[in-house]
Design a protein that fits this description.
Length: 251
């Protein structure tokens, strides 16, 4: 199963792909604050790593299938971080419309499956993705596979920090960026950060709607100083397996 990046192909190479055997993968992230040590596109970095690892795992299964990775969608709802400079937030309605329009375009070109590799957990964003799945089904477009990491069974496989909900720009995300693109991490700052055990998931249940209100005045939660590239490699492999299994369950 070859793996291709859509943006690097010519239109004739795309034309010649076997539509019935091609799985299309869309990495989805955000441009938002991730502490003082990680770049604004951290979620994009993680989603892209998830997409590529999952694609390679699907390729290893053989069977003549092809994986086509789309350019990442970097703009989405990010209202929790809206008060922090550099965060770019758009409405969930817009996100849903973009995903559905992409599904429509892919369907018109004869593709049969779109898988979303998502690393952004803002509630409005997740709602927008689930709505896109429903609308694509209602419009009889190609199915959209979306393994939501905040739902069972997926999140249980991503470590204790992730399960605690104190996992924005903490050990979980910092480790993955250290593995995938270490040059982007401000490592001296990371090592000096004190742990922040405040749980975003618990804060959401209590009605909080911003990082500050959730207990993250510097836009990080968890323990970034405990991160490591080795752990990041394991987490990327786990994310790739989640994507692989979600796709296999659909095809």
């Amino acid at each position: 199963m070859p793996v291709h990046e859509l943006a690097q192909l010519t239109w004739e190479e795309v034309r010649d792909l076997d539509r019935a055997r091609t799985v299309v993968v869309l990495p989805v992230g955000a441009i938002e604050a991730h502490g003082p040590h990680l770049p604004l596109d951290t979620d994009v970095v993680i989603a892209t790593a998830m997409a590529r690892d999952g694609a390679q795992k699907l390729a290893a299964r053989g069977g003549g299938r092809v994986v086509l990775i789309l350019p990442a969608l970097a703009y989405t709802a990010a209202s929790f971080a809206a008060a922090f400079q550099g965060t770019l937030s758009i409405s969930g309605i817009t996100v849903t419309a973009v995903i559905v329009d992409l599904a429509r375009s892919l369907s018109e070109q004869g593709f049969k499956l779109l898988a979303v590799a998502n690393a952004h957990l803002d509630p409005e964003h997740l709602t927008a993705l689930h709505e896109a799945v429903k609308l694509a089904r209602a419009d009889r477009l190609l199915p959209i596979v979306f393994p939501d990491l905040t739902r069972l069974p997926w999140g249980t496989r991503l470590g204790d920090e992730f399960k605690s909900g104190a996992c924005h720009a903490g050990r979980f995300e910092s480790s993955i960026v250290m593995s995938a693109q270490p040059e982007l991490v401000r490592d001296a700052i990371r090592r000096a950060l004190a742990p922040n055990p405040s749980s975003i998931s618990q804060a959401i249940k209590l009605g909080k709607r911003t990082f500050e209100a959730a207990g993250g005045p510097r836009a990080y939660f968890g323990d970034p100083a405990a991160a490591s590239a080795e752990e990041g490699s394991r987490l990327v492999a786990a994310l790739g397996s989640i994507l692989e299994e979600a796709v296999i369950a659909e095809i």
